Structure formats: structure tokens, C-alpha cells
Amino acid sequence: MSTTRLLLLGVVRIFQPAYGYQLRRELMTWKVDQWANINPGSVYTGLRTLAKHGYLVELEEGEGNKPGRTSYKLTADGEMEYISLLRAALWNVDGFQPGVMQAALSFMWSLRRDEVLAALESRIVQLEQLAKLEPFKERQILEDPATPNHVVEMFRVSMARDRGELEWTKEFRQRIADGEYAFAGEPPSWQPPPGTTTHWGVIPDPPN
Predict the structure, then answer these.
(1) What is the pTM for the complete model shown?
(2) Which of 101, 133, 136, 176 has the fewest CB atoms nearer than 10 Å to its CB?
(3) pLDDT digit string (tens) for 56-78?
(4) Do 183 and 112 touch, CB atoms closer than 8 A?
């Protein structure tokens, strides 16, 4: 649920104020139904839930409550929740939920470069610690008579992902240290094609 909340709050933050169908369409172009397990129809439910909890404000257009005509903006609480969820996703390693890091990558430009570098350094340490623990956990699985033999392969594939992420994280951190990409407080490194929304050209400052 936290990954879904991060994605919904993040996409509203980019395009606000925006209608539910616009936000749904944008998220589907990110293929979130494949890597974040977000059902297209659940986007509307998620937006309403966030509004109910005070993270979004609903702006009605015209009379009545016409489907698809409600636009959304972040509240002050929504902004703080967004940053909190983004930091949690970026700073904490969870090998069993790779979609969390995918979501963090979608929005890490909302933070300043020095924080992103520090978070990636923390992830490297966490992944290195997992690598040190790997042979002992594998031995525990193999020596447990109550555990079926094939279960160790579930552990091995998870560890293989972690080793791959460790290699990528080191390379990614170096690219950011070398000045690639743009973060909060910096000029944008990418501009949307002519005729598309201009929101992508703006990197809002994070809260103090």
C-alpha cells in the first residue's frame, strides 16, 4: 500500500491540479500495473482514499459529482507524506518488493543530490551486509530437515537479485556523483517534447 500511495501522491504532485483519468492514464504509461501491482481501476479508489485521509484535496468542476470531473491537489499533509514515503523507499532495502525501488526512482529528483547520494551509500552498505549473511542463511535452509529441498532456490534467486542491485547501485551512485540527472534546487536536465505538459520541466523544492 505504501508504494501505491507514493505513486499516487507523486503523480498528483507533478500534474496538479489533475483529473483522475489523467492521473490514471499517466500511471499506466509507467506500466505500474506490471511492477507495482496497481489495477487501473484502483487508481480512482486510491485517490479518493488519500483525499479522505487529508493528503489530497478534491476540486469539483461544475454541479454534482460527475465521474472523472474531480481534480486533485496535494495538501500540506500530502506533501509531507509524499516526502516521507519517498525517503523510506529510497533509504530502505527490500529485496522481496523490487517495485518499491522502482517507485523511488520515479520521484527521487524531488530530493536534493546530497541526500540521494547518502541514501544510495546506505543502500550499498545494507546490500553488502546481506551478501555477508547469505551463506549462513543458505546453510540454515539446507540443514533444516523440515524444509523442502527446492526452497533454497527461492532464497538463491532473491540473493541473486540483491547482488545485481548492489552492482547497479554502486554504478548509479557514481553517475549521480559525476553530475548526471537533476535534483531539487538544480536546473532540469530534461525537457518534455513540444506540445506536451510543461509540469515535467519543474522540480519543486522539498520541504525544509
Answers:
(1) 0.83
(2) 136
(3) 998 876 555 555 478 899 999 99
(4) yes
Task: Answer whether residue 166 shows pLDDT above 90.
Answer: yes
The sheet carrying 56-60 orders its strands as 18-19, 70-74, 56-60
Q: Distance between CA atoms of 137 and 19, rounded to whole angstroms?
A: 48
pLDDT tens digits, 95-126: 777 788 989 999 999 999 999 999 999 999 99
- Cα–Cα distance measured from residue 200 to residue 86, given in angstroms and rounded to the nearest whole number: 18
In this prediction, residue 203 has a pLDDT band, given cuts at 50, 70 and 90, of: very low
Q: ∠ at Cα 26 (35, 165), nearest 5°?
A: 30
Where does 16-112 have alpha helices with state H?
20-29, 32-35, 42-52, 76-91, 98-107
| Mean residue pLDDT across the chain | 86
Count of C-beta atoms within a 10 Å radius of residue 108? 22
Q: 11: buried, middle or exposed (CB in 10 Å: 19+, 13-18, 0-12)?
A: buried
End-to-end Cα distance, the chain: 26
CA distance 90 to 100: 8
Place of cell 523490487: 98
Closest CA to 18 of 45, 50, 56: 56
Question: If residue 18 lies in a helix (H) or strand (E), which one and from where to where?
Answer: strand 18-19
